[in-house]
Amino acid sequence: MDYGEEQEMELEALESIFAEDLRVVSPEGDEGVGQATSGKCFAFELSPKESEDDPEPTVVPVRVLLSLAHDGDYPDAAPVMKLRALRGAATEDVDALRGRLEQEIEDNLGMAMIFTLHAAAKEWMVERWSGEGDGGRQAAKEEERDEDGLTAAERAAKEEAERRRREGTPVTPETFAAWYERFQAERLLEKAKKATAAEAAAAAAGARSGRPTGRQIFESRGAAGAAAKKGADSGGGNDEDIEVDLEGDGEAIDLSALEELDDDELAALEAEELDIEDDEG
C-alpha cells in the first residue's frame, strides 16, 4: 500500500466534505498534535449542536478541539490524536471522549478514519450534553432549574441547610452550659435596666411632688383675691366679685382669681379637676 497516496486521497475527500470548515494546521502549532508528523494535521472545533443553526443545548457553550494527523504507515497505523477542552467541558469529559475515540481507532485500523473519528466525537458530545442517552440526561438534569431558579445541586444544599435549622444544634453538657451562662447574663442585664428605670421614675416623681398643684395655685390666688376684696369693701369700692360653690360643699371660691392664672396654671388646674372627676366616677 502506498501510504502517501492513501493519505492524499483522504485529504481530498475531507476537503470535499468539510469545505471551508476543514482547518489544516501545523502539527507542532497551538492547534496541532504537539509533535512533528510526516503527513497533514487537521483541527476540528466540536460542539454538541447538531448543526450550526441549532440552539446551544447547554447553559454554558461546550467546545472541544480535536486534532488528528497522518503519520508514517497510516491508515494501517493509528493517526496521531490530541484533544483539548476549549470551553465548558470538564477534564473527565475530555478523558471519556478520548477513550471513545481510541476504541474507534482500534476498530478502524487499515481504513481512512479521520471523518469517522470526527463523526464519533460529534455523536458522543451530542449524547453527553444534549439529552440523547444516559450521559446527556444526567447533564440536562444537573443543569435543570426549578421554579426558584435553582439547580438540583443548589436545591439539595438549600434543603440540607433548612434541615439543620429545623433540627437545631444537638444539646450536650457543654452547649447547655454555654447557653445557660448567656441566659443568666441576659437576665441580670434586664434586671439592671429595670432597676435603673425605676430609680429614674422615683426621682422624677419626687421632683414633681415639690411643686404646688393646680388647685393649690387656684386657692392661694383665691385667698389673695378675698383679702383684696375685703380691703376694697372697707374702702367703699363698688366692684362686684362673683363667688361660686364649685363642689357643693358650702365653700365659695372667688372666680376673679381665675383671671390671674397664666396658661400653664389653668392647664394644671383643669387636669387636676379632670382627675378628680375620673376618681369620683
UniProtKB/TrEMBL annotation:
<feature type="region of interest" description="Disordered">
    <location>
        <begin position="199"/>
        <end position="250"/>
    </location>
</feature>
<feature type="domain" description="RWD">
    <location>
        <begin position="9"/>
        <end position="128"/>
    </location>
</feature>
<feature type="compositionally biased region" description="Low complexity">
    <location>
        <begin position="199"/>
        <end position="208"/>
    </location>
</feature>
<dbReference type="InterPro" id="IPR032378">
    <property type="entry name" value="ZC3H15/TMA46_C"/>
</dbReference>
<protein>
    <recommendedName>
        <fullName>RWD domain-containing protein</fullName>
    </recommendedName>
</protein>
<dbReference type="InterPro" id="IPR016135">
    <property type="entry name" value="UBQ-conjugating_enzyme/RWD"/>
</dbReference>
<feature type="compositionally biased region" description="Acidic residues">
    <location>
        <begin position="238"/>
        <end position="250"/>
    </location>
</feature>
<dbReference type="InterPro" id="IPR040213">
    <property type="entry name" value="GIR2-like"/>
</dbReference>
<dbReference type="Pfam" id="PF05773">
    <property type="entry name" value="RWD"/>
</dbReference>
<feature type="compositionally biased region" description="Basic and acidic residues">
    <location>
        <begin position="131"/>
        <end position="143"/>
    </location>
</feature>
<dbReference type="InterPro" id="IPR006575">
    <property type="entry name" value="RWD_dom"/>
</dbReference>
<dbReference type="Pfam" id="PF16543">
    <property type="entry name" value="DFRP_C"/>
</dbReference>
<feature type="compositionally biased region" description="Basic and acidic residues">
    <location>
        <begin position="155"/>
        <end position="168"/>
    </location>
</feature>
<feature type="region of interest" description="Disordered">
    <location>
        <begin position="131"/>
        <end position="171"/>
    </location>
</feature>
